[in-house]
Amino acid sequence: MKIHGPEWLFADDPLPDPHGKGARAVAAIEKLTLPSGKLAGQPFILPKWQRRLVTRIYGDTDADGKRRIRQVIILLPRKQGKTTLSAALTLLHLAGPEREQAGEVILAASDRGQASIAFKIARLMITGNPTLAETVNVVPSLKEMEHIGTGSVLKAISHEAYSKHGMNISMLLADEVHAWPNRELWDVLETSMGAREQPLTVAITTAGIGVTGLDYELIEYARKVERGDIADPSVLPVLFEAPADCDIFDEDVWRSVNPALACGYMSISYLQGKAKRAREIPSEREPFKRLHLNIRSDGAAEPFFPMDKWDACRAPIDIEALAGRECWVAIDLSSNRDLTAVVAAFPEPDGTFVLLAWFWLPEAGLRRRAMQDRSPYMLWHEAKQLLTTPGNVIDQRIIEQHLRYMAETYQVREFAFDPWAAKQIQGALLEDGLPVVSFRQGTLSMSPAIKELEALLLSGRIRHNGDPVLRNCMAHAVVEKDKAENLMLSKAKARDRIDGAVAACMAVSRAAAGEDSGSRWNRPNFTLTFLE
């Protein structure tokens, strides 16, 4: 069976360990006891792949016996024993053979809860080992431990409790870095290790979401080292990830990236159950791929719109050939935080709808917004896929100019506005006789619109040109349901901006209604119409 991970972890050839430090580290860990599960209280016997991993980290030493590896980047699916291994590695540096005089061992996570989990396991491992229990003082309320003989400390910290300047870290265990909101904590912790002779950072994570963020940067660098694009012997990449185009329901693929299946940490029936739900419920496929196969999601953890269907609808579009064509346009305006989105839907004779989209953000602070939203706004802006208006709020005059240009270029049957903050533009367009409607954002309007776009997408009757901003909005779209099964796109629950998805639903809904019943534009005495 092919391994979609480091094959050396499963090989039989001996690993370099000239000073025996790798074997020493393995022996120290295996003196610990497992704190929970069906093997609770038994020695922590490392499975082969973990034994070889520990040997490689600590056994790869130079002529002076100093460890070559300074950073380990581990990408593992869920349920692989990551947290137990993390706790054991931190104890090696607190009270084991890797301890230093006055060492600082930091177990860092995105939030207090996650940091507490590994700390608790480390505490229980100490309790289960008489020697450690006598030599390590534990203060659970502070999430701290101290090794009496050396004065080394272990602290569990979180991104939310950020006050970390002044540290002198000897070992950093960064847990689930895909959940870290930015790299600020990472930079502080990493730069605090400069005074140590042999610092070690171990970053362990499951695949994250999107193409920005700390975890994406770390994994991309690790991939380059693994491929040989970058020569950096101080970095050890340990990446288990299935190919993006794999058959996600193939059990051999599961085994290729889940080493815990072979050593009994995870049952195949567990994954079979998860896969069954993913097969039947489209919104569960992305979490299954990301959490259990390490196929990175580029949108919400549970996006409403299946992105494989969206990508399958991508096709070249001759934009110039659309001039003079009938279309319905939806506008989702913003002030300064959200995207302003304009989406046009062009009906085709075969029942397909062609989508074109335009997006704006305020020019001032664009780089800061990109960092806050963890989105590549600067790249999109340079490629003219994301437009800007001067200042720090959207200049609606520029949006109005664009809509007037659209009215001159296409046969616009309706300009459908989310009426929030749109009164001025609506009034100006109406004065010139342009077809304006208000599309309120309640469930009576939005639920049918969302379902309309979903049905067209599932049947392959959407065409788009792969606009990356629109794709990002679709990939992050999540819905809320009320008791009557009405749907609403939730900006509050979305990790990123979804304004393009909102406008796409509106445009497709109005285009489908216009095709079915005839446009208001063709009716006499046209006036502003409110939908819902």
Describe this structure in words.
This protein has 532 residues and is an alpha/beta fold. Helices cover 37% and strands 17% of the residues. It is built from 19 helices and 18 strands. A hairpin with a 7-residue loop joins strand 9 and strand 10 (340-347). The longest helix is centred in the last third of the chain and has 19 residues, at 499-517. The N and C termini lie far apart (57 Å). Residues 517-532 have low confidence and may be disordered.
Report how far the terminal alpha carbons are from each other. 57 Å
Strand content: 15-25%
Structural class: alpha/beta
Biggest β-sheet strands, sense, barrel: 8 strands, mixed
Helix content: 25-40%
Quick one: how many beta strands?
Answer: 18
Main-sheet strand order equals: 3-4-5-2-6-7-1-8
The coarse silhouette is elongated
Number of helices: 19
What are the segments in which pLDDT stays under 50 over at least 5 consecutive residues? 517-532
Compute the average pLDDT: 88
Work out the radius of gyration.
28 Å
Which key phrases capture this entry?
8-stranded mixed sheet, 17% strand, 19 helices, elongated, disordered C terminus, alpha/beta, 532 residues
